[in-house]
Amino acid sequence: MSTHVPVAVIGGGQAGLSVSWYLSRAGIEHVVLEAATPVHAWADSRWDNFTLVTPNWHCRLPGYAYDGPDPDGFMTRDEVVDWLSGWLDTFDAPVRTHTRVTRLRNGTDGGFELTLRTDAGEETLSCAHAVVATGGYPIPVLPSFAGALAPSVTQIHSEQYRNAGQLPDGAVLVVGTGQSGAQIAEDLHLAGRQVHLAVGNAPRVARFYRGRDCMTWLADMGLYDRPAAEYPGGKAAIEKTNHYVTGRDGGRDIDLRRFAAEGMRLYGTLVGGHDTAVQFAPTLRRALDHADVVYNSICADIDAYIERTGAAAGPPGRYTPVWEPETEPTALDLAAEGVTAIVWAIGYRPDYRWIEASAFDGGGRPMQNRGVTTVPGLSFIGLPWMHTWGSGRFLGVDSDARHIAETIIGAHRDSAPASPLRLAVGG
User: Where would one find the signal peptide in this protein (predicted)?
Assistant: First the structure.
């Protein structure tokens, strides 16, 4: 079966549905193609004790914003699912669930041809505009040597982790200290498990500073709205891992040094392994120091903003290390230390092999400007740093979606054969 629709939005998460919200208000016929069900990832890919790391007031989507009793708190996974469900009830998005797009290619008469896989079989759909909203990096990364480790050691990726009880009894090696790795290590530590943690180069940030959440300060300073091209440090800065912190139990710092003082075992970057032996680079001290330097530099930036604006604030301060590594451990025998499981938290990679279009750089990342590519009619939404630091977060999705929708609406106006359709996306 082959059908045509003016616009196809591929992906039914909050980013794709935000574009749909604007297109619906403008009267643009479209369809949202979702491989599972809308915003399913929030329920299916987060651990039991997951919380947002951004304050609840950051949660804004088209026509909808958090209005609960705790704007400075941090919603749990289940609360986020409920909040998103409430948003979905406010409009009627034309979503086709359980419909996976397996191929996108140029159409014979312009536009695009999509191959769809559904429960009923395969079909094709043509469209003039395609908005890819499948997420920034959907493929979990595992190291090349993971398959060489002893089969007696359970291995899962961070997206599969739910709670300490799902892992076999014994110690756990967590690899990576981005937001997921640091928080999962904390979750296991609080559950009483012996944790071995391979520390990466991710920076960290204070949860609260001078009486307010640091992310509220940064929002007031305009950092989430600054275009990526204008961000200090350029491309290298924006490609770094996000700062680790947690919203758990009302929000607090994640201090790996304190975890170590409480018995967690810390190592540098994991670089290899075979059977039950794994090796680490001697990078632990440098990684901890770097994270603390970033932490204190952010506090200093907030200090400068307070001084410049006269904002009301508590007294300034700086983090002082509570623990220092005596050595740089470079090896670990998993069997000897009773390690029965590994949680890989080393990130994800892009996978756009199903898109047959010249819209990608050598690393497989979309070449785009505010989501719009040089391929006529092809756009992206929901990418980290797509336009600003807020892109890919609740705080920036609305603005990004509005821009993509306005681009599509403008193209429809320009191509109208008779009197242009009067369309509005305000409100």
Answer: none
pLDDT tens across 215-261, in order? 999 999 999 998 887 876 666 555 666 899 999 999 999 999 999 99
- C-alpha 298/C-alpha 223 separation (Å) is 12
* Rg of the chain (C-alpha set): 23
Q: Cα dihedral angle (149, 153, 155, 160), rounded to 10 degrees?
A: 180
Q: What is the CATH number of domain 140-344?
A: 3.50.50.60
- Residue boundaries of the structural domains of the chain: 2-138+350-415, 140-344
Domain 2-138+350-415 class?
alpha beta
pLDDT digits (tens, 9 = 90+) for 8-49: 999 999 999 999 999 999 999 999 999 999 989 898 889 999
Reduced to 3 states (helix: H, G, I; strand: E, B; else coil), residue 3 is strand
- CA gap 365, 387 in Å, rounded: 14
What is the maximal distance between C-alpha atoms in the chain? 77
DSSP secondary structure letter of residue 191: T
* Residue-by-residue DSSP string for 112-165: EEEEEEETTEEEEEEEEEEEE-S-S--EEP--TTGGGB-TTSEEEEGGG---GG
Q: What is the 3-state secondary structure (H, E, C) of 305-317?
A: HHHHHCCCCCCCC
What size, in residues, is the chain? 427
Q: What angle do CA 120, 123, 128 make, to 5 degrees?
A: 140
